[in-house]
Amino acid sequence: MTVRVSRKAKFCYSCGDVIESAAVVCPRCGVVQPAVTAEAQSERRILPAFLLCFFLGVFGAHRFYAGKIGTGVLELLTAGGLGIWWLVDMIMILTGSFRDSEGRKISAWT
Fold first, then answer.
1. How far apart are alpha carbons 101 and 91 in whole angstroms?
2. 5: left (phi over 0), alpha (psi -120 to 50) or beta
3. Checking phi first, is residue 16 left (phi over 0); if not, alpha (psi -120 to 50) or beta?
4. What residues are paired with 104 via a beta bridge?
5. H or E element at residue 20
6. CA–CA separation, 94 vs 43, rounded Å?
7. 37 CB-contact burial (10 Å; exposed 0-12 / middle 13-18 / buried 19+)
8. What's the pLDDT score for residue 38?
9. 87 close to 79: Cβ distance less than 8 angstroms
10. Which residues, including other chains, have CB under 8 Å from residue 90's CB and lie 6 or more apart?
11. Cα angle value 70/49/81 (rounded, 5°)
């Protein structure tokens, strides 16, 4: 049996029940959850973001891909911030420091 877990859920450290990702204590078993030390990574990938930025960057396609709709529209209307946003985003994507709309790094290539 496969259980699908949303991005806003996690498994309890003790009992394995599905709980909210921000939960400090499991509501089922009452065990305090350990703090997450590793930074969460985005489900999105660098390669598609890079290709979208390279070919359609002045239209903000990579920002729409990352879920940043507001800045995607701004980049679309300003032709990539007159090329400045496009260049900065290209560098950020290639260095692995570009983030999605939830603040998670887009760091996996494929």
1. 18
2. beta
3. left
4. none
5. strand 18-20
6. 17
7. exposed
8. 55
9. no
10. 50, 53, 54, 57
11. 45
Are 47 and 107 in contact by the 8 Å Cβ rule? The answer is no
Pair of tokens at residue 10: 């996690």
Give the rounded distance of the alpha carbon of 91 from its chain centre.
Answer: 17
Measure the CA–CA gap between 91 and 88, rounded to whole angstroms: 5
Give, for all 110 residues of the chain, the pLDDT tens digit.
Answer: 455 555 678 888 678 888 887 788 888 888 888 765 556 788 899 999 999 999 998 999 999 999 999 999 999 999 888 889 999 999 999 998 888 888 888 888 87
Query: What are 50's two structure tokens?
Result: 């890079």
